[in-house]
Task: structure prediction
Amino acid sequence: MASAVIVAAGRGVRMCSPVAKQFLALGDMPVLARTLQVFAAHPQVADICLVVPEADFAFCRKSVLPLVENQKPIKLTAGGRKRQDSVQCGLASLDRPEKIVVIHDGVRPFVTAKLISGCIDMAAETGACIAGIPAAETLKRVDAGNVIAQTVNRDGIWLAQTPQAFDFRLIQKAFEKAAADGFLGTDDASLVERMGVGVRIIEGSRGNIKITTPADLEMAARLLENQSTAEAKP
Ligand SMILES: Nc1ccn([C@@H]2O[C@H](COP(=O)(O)OP(=O)(O)OP(=O)(O)O)[C@@H](O)[C@H]2O)c(=O)n1
Ligand SMILES: C[C@](O)(CO)[C@H](O)COP(=O)(O)O
Result:
């Protein structure tokens, strides 16, 4: 079994919306409710810590949690200034953490139960596993003037996603070390990698998008439509 930490305490600056993107409607419910539903229904997830801005606790209690058919405890925790701070808040607030913790962005609503299982199972076997996709485009390093400085060889290059799953004591140590060193990473695995621990990566899906910009939200609406059409087919 695993404990889940769902981080949704960001401000969503790149979405350029007065409403934080995790609370924007995707179909008939907020983005965050869709993400939560997948984890709440997952047989290997024992409990959930939902990390949101403290100012949004009431909204979550009124307009998000009731949409999540759920027999599992969902604990609300206030986030921090950076994503890493919010994950730390989530880890610290787990009352009785399971051996494995699975960390996921609240704005990745198209995560599948299969991908969650894959990350949990591989983390249980090896200590750490994240989702990702191999780079499919050509990668360019660009200078300040938007002039291409270098074409980066994409062999072996993957784009990290979430879920990111870890042995709880390992990720706890990684966060303690990062805090002591003043290290700030953009994902959780980077804190474990810097300890010299091998982190496995399993193939996610290009559909496991992180809703970041207005274009992503439009893409998400199309993905949802396609999903509903596919489910309606006999
Ligand atoms: N201080 C933060 C920053 C981010 N997140 C969460 O981490 C996930 C991925 O972060 P990102 O997509 O960057 O969200 P924001 O930080 O809100 O976006 P922006 O950088 O555009 O402000 C999101 O679910 C976001 O809510 C968080 O819990 N706490
Ligand atoms: C954790 C992550 O989703 C992996 O791709 C990504 O690093 C989050 O970055 P953000 O800048 O916090 O959106």
Notes: The chain has one domain: 2-232.
